[in-house]
Design a protein that fits this description.
This protein has one domain. The protein has 171 residues and is mostly beta strands. Strands 5-4-8-7-6-1-2-3-9-10-11 form an eleven-stranded antiparallel β-sheet, sandwiched between helices.
């Protein structure tokens, strides 16, 4: 895996707006650039970005030294108070969770955007996407396995995806 290849692939994000982060199960789906409609998996259409970044490893959105929302917030109820016990019946994939609530608030239900100022590439496929409003999206692979970490692609197009795995780049 070369830093140069990742820098080249992620350079397309500079100057684009990040305007949404949703999820498919526990995978984060960040949407960048112009908005467009594409066919949805279960029929109908959905709104996606000009570019999508699908993340299957640890990630967080920070402002200076504070984590605003992170991948593990998924495993807490939406109204979770720090120090409380997670209710035994809570199921993150069924019940309202903290991650979804924090992301909805941050992006103001899709009406707030943050401009990508720069993408910094780190080791082992890690990224730091520096945004306006002193925000950053940090992506950091956190296991030693060979599976997919993240992928960058243009939704609705047939071009090959740029995929970073624990074994390297698949493009």
């Amino acid at each position: 895996m070369t830093k140069t290849e990742i820098e080249s692939a992620t350079a397309v994000l500079a100057g684009k707006a990040l305007w949404q982060c949703l999820r498919a199960a526990d995978m984060a789906t960040f949407q960048f650039g112009g908005r467009k409609s594409v066919a949805a998996f279960r029929g109908g259409t959905k709104e996606v970005g000009e570019y999508a970044l699908h993340v299957q490893c640890a990630w967080r959105i920070t402002r200076q030294d504070r984590v605003i929302v992170g991948s593990r917030d998924l495993y807490y109820p939406a109204d979770y108070e720090e120090g409380a016990e997670v209710p035994s019946g809570f199921a993150w994939d069924r019940d309202s969770n903290r991650r979804d609530r924090l992301l909805t608030s941050l992006f103001e239900n899709g009406s707030r955007e943050f401009l990508v100022q720069k993408v910094r590439v780190g080791v082992a496929g890690s990224l730091s996407i520096l945004l306006s409003d002193d925000l950053a999206v940090d992506i950091f692979p956190d296991d030693s396995l060979s599976g997919e970490r993240w992928r960058l692609f243009e939704p609705g197009r047939t071009e090959q995806h740029f995929v970073v795995t624990g074994k390297g780049i698949e493009a």
